[in-house]
Every structure is written in structure tokens, then in C-alpha cells.
Amino acid sequence: MSQGASQSRVKFGDQYNAWLRHHRLSAADSLFRVLDNFVSSVLTWLVIGIALALPVALDVALDNANELSAGWDSPSQISLFLADDIGADAARALAAELEARDDVVSVQFVSREDALAEFSELSGFADVLASLEENPLPNLLLVGPADDLGGAATGGLRSQLAELPGVAEAVLDMEWLQRLNSLMELSRRMVLAIGALLVLGVVLILGNTIRLAIEARRDEIVIVKLVGGSNPFVRRPFLYTGLWYGVGGGFFAGLLVSSSLWFLQQPVSSLAALYQSEFELAGLGFMGFLNLLVLGGLLGLAGAWLAVSRHLSKIEPR
């Protein structure tokens, strides 16, 4: 007498090996399908690469600008332009008075003669300036605020010095750098906003690409579900497809950014040499390129998961 079917428990090791084997097969099969449609895949990679390259390139440009402006972060200096009737002796007396203040670390007196000589040397108009009947430049005091003064306190010191008798004008020489830093912070936030929008666009592009792949394999999905394939089993190849598209897009983004920096390197170096600077553009580097690949892969997985979760549940055997 024959016995009926019997149940047996599958060992955990066998389940794990089957799960791992299916991951390998899904990754290899999805990569083959992506490469099999090479032209359309390259176009998809280019679209993703351009969308990722734009915010990354802007971020790299801001990093280079920050690196360039880092050398300008010298201590704040207040220039006191004295009135025309303030002579050298009165200017030195005022300098000694200012040096006694607790919020001032140094005071340098620049006479109008020294200022005119320096201006003549730097401007290249020595002949024109020599023809002037009188020196138009005033005596100048360069005041160095104490190191522990913040930006607001330094601005308050400038206001106090501007009200001193004999001071025609007080200029805080670092105000332009503070404006530059504020502009850089605004630009950084704009790059983040643009980057967020483009990242969302990449996810939607990948989601639509995976949706088309799902529709193209609808009959295959129905057959797999008929023989007992679970949703995770069916979902896995499409997730790997999204991963390959994302990694390829990140690779193309890295190539675009690196090529742009290489194209600009020589003109930037030539311009820096004219200003006696050794500044050179900083690129992505190996870690930056690797981060782009990882970011692209994660966005690919996110787009694929979004598309599969929405469309796969609608495909059921009848």
C-alpha cells in the first residue's frame, strides 16, 4: 500500500543557499538584460548622469571657492581715514590713544606721503600722480581689533572709532569677506535645493524605466506567480536592474564632472598665475567618485522599489 505525500522541513542552510543563489542569478541576469539593450541603457545612464552631475559640479565649485577664500580669512582690520586738517603728529597721538584700548591689539600709522608712494607703485600712474600740485590722500590709521572680538563686536568698534574727532571715515576691511561668506552660504543652500529636486527626478526616471521593464515582462511575472513565486522572488531582478542603472548613471556623472574640471584646469591655473597664486582646482578624488557610484546605486534601488511596489501588486494570475 503506497503512502501519501509527506512534508519535510527545509534546513536553514539550504534556504540561505537558495536565497543567495537567486540573488547571484538575478544580479547577473539583470545586468545581461541592461547590457543587451546597450544603446537605450547608455541613454538612460546619460540622463541620470547629467541630473547627478549638475548639483555635484556646483558643490565642487563651491568647495573650490571656499578653499580659495580660506587664504583671505586674515584678522579684521579697520582703516581710519583722518580728516585733511589732521597732521602727522596729531595722527600719531591718536594712534597711541587707540593702542591703549583693551579692544585694540595694534595700530599702524600710514602717512599721506607713504600712502601716495605705495599707490603710485601699485597703480602704475606715477607720472600722473607726480604732476599733482598737492597730495590728495589723507593720513591713515590701520587698527587691528582684539582677536576675541566677534563680527558684531568688531562692527561696533568700527562705529565707535568713526565718531572720534578727526576721523573722516572708518572702513571695516573684512566686510566684503563677510558678504562673500553669506553669499557662499546662500549658494550652498541653493545647490542643496537644486540637488534635492534633481535627485527626485532621478528616482522618477528610474521608476519609470523599471515600470516599462515590468510591463515588458508581464507574462513572465504571471507564470512565475502561477507556479508559486512570491512577490520578493519576483521583485528581486527588477531591484538589481534599478541598481545597475543607478550605478551606471553615477559612473557617467563622475566622468562628466571630472571631464569638466580637467577642461577648466588649465585656464584656472593660468589665471591664478597672473595673481601670483598657486591655486589649483580640486576634483572629486577617488572617494568622491566612489560616493557618486554609491549614491547612484541607492537612487536606483529607491526608484526600482517605488515602481515595483506600485505595479507588481497589480499583476496577478487570473
TrEMBL record:
Transmembrane segments: 34-58, 190-210, 243-264, 284-308
UniProt keyword annotations, A-Z: Cell cycle, Cell division, Cell inner membrane, Cell membrane, Membrane, Transmembrane, Transmembrane helix
Principal localisation: membrane
One example of a Gene Ontology biological process annotation: cell division
InterPro entries documented for this protein: ABC3_permease_C, FtsX, FtsX_ECD, FtsX_proteobact-type
ABC3 transporter permease C-terminal domain boundaries: 193-311
Membrane association type: Multi-pass membrane protein
PANTHER family: CELL DIVISION PROTEIN FTSX (PTHR47755:SF1)
Subunit comment: Forms a membrane-associated complex with FtsE.
Entry function: Part of the ABC transporter FtsEX involved in cellular division.
Protein name: Cell division protein FtsX
Organism: Halioglobus maricola
